[in-house]
Amino acid sequence: MCPCLLQLLFYLIVAAIAVVFVVVAVLLYKTKPYPTIVRHADEKSFLDPQSIQTIAFPCIEDAPTLELSVIVPAYNEEKRLPSMLDECLAFLEDKSKRKSNFNYEVIVVSDGSADATVSTALRYSKKHGADKVRVLELIENRGKGGAVRMGMLSARGRQLLFADADGATKFADYDKLEESLSSLASEWRQDGIAIGSRAHLEDDAIASRSFFRTILMHGFHTLVWLFAVRSVRDTQCGFKLFTRSTARKLFTSLHVQRWAFDVELLYLAERLKLPMSEVAVRWTEIDGSKLTPFWSWLQMGSDLVMIWLRYTVGAWRIAAIEKKEN
User: Fold this and answer.
1) 276-280 and 193-197 strand pairing
2) How many Cα atoms within 13 Å fall on the side-chain side of residue 28?
3) What parts of the sequence cross the membrane (predicted)?
4) Torsion sign across C-alpha atoms 99, 100, 101, 106
């Protein structure tokens, strides 16, 4: 090989190493190792529409007082939220009548909504009572992950479920997740996650999707496997059940507040070696999604790489490990 080419190759390698060192240095300098969870004063309480009083939310660090908390993140969901809540509450009411020791709450987290999401949710709170339906109104839009986290940190349940506001997953499949979680953790102080999964529907989804969307889906799954989560086939289904102990560990450690938060949650769970099971659920695509296929997948793809990079170089650390060591 020509000496000039060897010299050029050497300079390119040195430049690449220098770029890597600069990127790592910037990440370590600019990135806070643990998430800063900001909660405005107005977000620490909820309105009881029957008494017209504001009541302080409890804390995830408190002992549980209910069997199940359902967290519903909602951003401009005035149209899709009612059908989801109707199905959810009908199921939970029936279950509480059949099982005397089962009680629940639903926390609708409005993520800075500009429509009638809050007033829609408050109608359900007035109808069912604020002990069963509570509305957490975030002052500004944080992203789906940020909204789910705020709901989790305000919950009273031994088990905590987050369910998408579109109602795409059949809510009765909670029973399947509950059974699976109980096999992993016999009580709330133990760790476990039951993950709703649409992986069994993948062949049908490919048949109904365009070629372009199928390529995006496979590309995203490949990135997830390469950079983050290898033990779960469907990381993005909005139907996941946690024990209280696990929810506390994961949501106090979560950095990503937008669409890729599911991947970071499961990445953390794998790093912490928490028991997980993937459970097939019934799922139907609902119109009105806030995701735009290309740009949303591109954003999530870049988030995946950054999740891996930041944890790999130590720019991000896991708060749950720090607490355990202290």
Assistant:
1) parallel
2) 9
3) 6-29
4) positive
Three-state SS string across 278-303, please?
A: EEECCECCCCCCCCCHHHHHHHHHHH
Phi first, then psi, for residue 132 (nearest 5°) are: -105, -35
In which element (H, E) is residue 251 found?
helix 244-251
Longest Cα–Cα distance in the chain? 84
Handedness of CA 55, 60, 61, 63 (dihedral sign): positive
What would the pLDDT profile of 50-86 be if each residue is shown by its tens digit?
999 999 999 999 999 999 999 999 999 999 999 999 9
User: How many Cβ atoms from other residues are within 10 Å of residue 140's Cβ?
Assistant: 10
Cβ contact 254:265 at 8 Å: yes
Amino acid at the residue 310: R
With helix as H, strand as E and coil as C, how does 72-133 read?
A: EEECCCCCCHHHHHHHHHHHHHHHHHHCCCCCEEEEEEEECCCCCHHHHHHHHHHHHCCCCE
Domains identified in the chain and CATH numbers? 40-286+294-321 (3.90.550.10)
Query: What does pTM read for this prediction?
Result: 0.87
- CB-based burial, 206-221: b 16+ in 10 Å, e otherwise: eeeeeeeeeebbeebb
In order of 71, 123, 244, 267, the CA distances from 263 in angstroms are 18, 33, 19, 6
